[in-house]
Every structure is written in C-alpha cells, then in structure tokens.
Amino acid sequence: MSETKIRKRHEIPVEDTWAIEDLYATDELWEQELATLAEDSAYLSSFAGQLGTSPEKLYAYLERMEQVNAKGELLANYCMRKADEDTRNATYQAMQGRFMSVFVALGAATSFDTPEIMAISDEQLDAFYAQCPALERYRRYLTELRRRKDHTLSPAEEKLLAAA
C-alpha cells in the first residue's frame, strides 16, 4: 500500500487553487480595506437616534449598511480562504482574528438599528415609502425585520448582545 503525501500549498498547481486574488490582489490591499470598516462603523453609528426621523435618513443608513455588509463578506472570504490554505500559517489566523474583532465592533456600533426600526409605526413607515420611493428597495428587508418585533430586545440589551 502506498503512502499518500500531503502536498504543501506551493506544490499545488495554480489551476487547482482558489483565485483569491480576485477578491484582493495582496494582503496589503486587504488590510487597507479592513481599515475602512472602522470608518464605516463611525459613519453608521452617527445615525443613532435618527432612523425614524425621515425616510431619507433611513434610506441612507440602509444603503450604506448594505455596502458595508458586502465589503465585510469580501474581507471575511479573503482572510478565511487564506487561513484555510495552510492552517499552520499564523499570519492568516491572525488576519481572521482582526477581521472578527472589527466586525464585532461594527455590530456593537450599529446595534441601535433594529430597535429604532421597530419603533417606527406602520403608518409612519408607509408614509416613508410614499415620500421616498427609493426606500421600496428595502421593503422586504424591513417587513421581515419588523415581523420579529416581539422577539427584539431593548437598545441597551441589543448593544450588549452585539458586543458578545
């Protein structure tokens, strides 16, 4: 019986590997993008207490949050795939840890959004849709979110849970 040798990453043909460079060409570009997540967090947290004040505010928040979530998915995929390439490589394990720290901080900074959206009355939300047609893009998301109203914690409890 022959022994199967596990090849090292550099021994595997490129065509048999992930095209991780399609996400970020270098680790440095990934690091730069990760740094912008902190800026996004500060911007999004500036909406605290304002989501129910106007349809434009709600729309601006939801649009930016969608962009930040897409960026987060790319950042996560890159560091996780790099870590999966060789689990002995501490560099990429550390990248995963840094990403998770930043993403948890983002979650804590935006934990106000669900309770604030829940506090908008059905009538007011209907008026928001009428006043800002672009908000229709998020109708399904808002409907699904508000459907769970009975299971939503207070703002302080949501923040504590997000930080965990």
Give an overview in words.
The protein is an all-alpha fold and 164 residues long. It is built from 7 helices and no strands. Helix 1 (27-45) runs antiparallel to helix 2 and helix 1 (27-45) packs parallel to helix 3. The longest helix has 31 residues, at 55-85. The chain starts with 26 loop residues before the first helix and ends with a helix. The mean pLDDT is 90.
Set down the secondary structure blueprint:
Layout: H1 27-45, H2 55-85, H3 90-109, H4 113-119, H5 122-131, H6 139-147, H7 155-163
Helix pairs in contact: 1-2, 1-3, 2-3, 3-7
H/E element string? HHHHHHH
Helix- and strand-based class? Answer: mainly alpha
How far do the termini sit from each other? 50 Å
The Cα radius of gyration reads 21 Å
Q: Could you describe the largest sheet, including whether it forms a barrel? A: none
| Overall mean confidence score, pLDDT | 90
- What best-fitting shape do the alpha-carbon axes yield? elongated
Strand coverage percent: under 5%
List the uncertain runs. none
Q: How many helices in DSSP terms?
A: 7
The helix content is 55-70%
Number of strands: 0
